[in-house]
Structures are given as C-alpha cells and as structure tokens.
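[Backbone geometry]
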Amino acid sequence: MKRKIKNTEAVRNLNLAAENLSNPLVGFTDGGDFAVSKHIGDIVGDDVIRLQMNLIILCSKGTLRVALNGKEIEISANEVLVCPANALFVKYDQSADCELKTMSLSDRLIYTMLGNRLDVWIKNVYIDNVYKLSLTESETRRMALYSQLSHSIIEDADIEYRSDLVRTQLEALMLELCGRLATLSGQQKTKSSYSKVLFYKFLTALSSATVKRKPVMAYASELAITPKYLSFICFKYSGCTALEWIDKFVMEDARYYLKTTNMSIKEIATRLGFPNNSFFGRYIVRHVGMSPINYRRSLKS
C-alpha cells in the first residue's frame, strides 16, 4: 500500500491559489488565505504533494490513513490530523463510511488567529511533531459546528462580510485546537534537541519582535550561532529558510496594517523597518505582485 516517490517530479506542490484548488466543492475567500471542504479529495486529490499551507482534517466517522513526512498516520472518529506547511503528504485510503471536515489555512492566517498563543503551535507542530490529536466528544461537536457554519456562510454569496465571518469560525476552531495542544504540552515533558530549541527560540523571537525585518545575521547573533546554521535548522524542521520565515512574518504585519488601519504607506513602511516607500513598494510587489496601494484595495474589497 505504501507509495514510493521515485523522483521529485512525482511530488506536486499544493498551495491555496485558485488554479491549484479549482474544485467547485471547495470554498475560497480572502485572497487565498483558506479553503474548507467536506471531502479531503477536493483539496489534496490522490497525488503525492508538498503542502504549501496548513491542512487540518477532522474525522467524525470511519478512518483515514495518510503518510506525513514519511510517517504513516491513521485517524478515526474524534481525531484531528494536523499537517504543517511544507510537509510531504500522501493520502493512502479511507473507509467507505469516512466523514471528514477539511480546512486549509495559510501561515499568515494562523499567525493572525493565534496571536500570542503562536508559541504553542510552533512547539507542538514544528518542534514535537504532534500531527494527531484525540478530542473529547464535545470538542469534536464544536469543531464540526464551526466547519458547518463556515460552509453555510460560504454558500451564501449575498451575505455581507462573508470572508470575515468565515475567518471568525476558523479562528474559533483554531483556538480550540490550540487549547488541546496546550493541554498536551502540559502533559508531555519531552526533552528537545539543542537545534530544535534554537529553532523554537528563533520563531518566538521573530513573532514577538516589533520590527521583524532584520537580517538573518541579527537573529543568529541573538542565538549565538552563525546565519548559515540558523537557516540550516530552520529548513531541517520546517522546510523554510530563516529568510523565508522572516518574510512570512513581515508580510503578515504588512497585511495587517494595510487592511485594518488608516496609516499611510509611508507610516507603514517606517513601522515595518523599511528605509523608504520605494523599498517597501518593491518588497510588496515581489511578494504579492501588486503595489501596496493596490494590495490594500484588494484586502479591503
């Protein structure tokens, strides 16, 4: 049953862009920040894929068997599978009576939703590799309700603030999940390797920094290691380099200020640590393909 990957061409990158997730059963909102579905096949299909988003799968009935980063995992009723971004995912099979709720969320959306609880997510998912969680029946019911309400909102094309309403339901679901992870952290007293501790310290320092746009060398110096080693451990545990992680957090801050405040482009650029508007503009164009002004319009539309 196990599927072997003979070459890198057999691996399909999957992100939240509409061209990659074009199944009409999947609901998309908010510029590719999330997708929700009742069927895992709507999102991942049957390919060997490299996830470019976080995949959350809630099982309410039957069984699902997958491989995540080479590790075989089976979930059944009242269990959740947590698949972090950049993980290698293979769907093996599922029982005929399997009932799932599947949610895909971008990194930036998770950072926004979890806020100062992000360290719980980082420690459990990236450091301790907690991919499978058992839920109580009440937790399962609530998560299923969040998902059902999200589908109901998405299906009503005329509803005002549809995207924000769906995000609210997904945020409630993520907070429930993070609460379960926090409980698990309190029960487990495992000792992490030195490199994992450094990776955790880097991400927590990055997430808490007021100005996140700093050279990799600056973060490495805080940890008393070389920039090369910092990027090595980042890639080892997450599939992203240190610079890519910095860009993720900087772009989330940029997105927040552009969407939720009336600050000028110049004020935002200064707040984020850019020397001038021009530099900030080129940075935004490089990451989203449009100017800060147009990006702000798209976020508020």
In short: The longest strand covers residues 54-61. Residues 1-9, 18-29 have pLDDT under 50 and may be disordered.
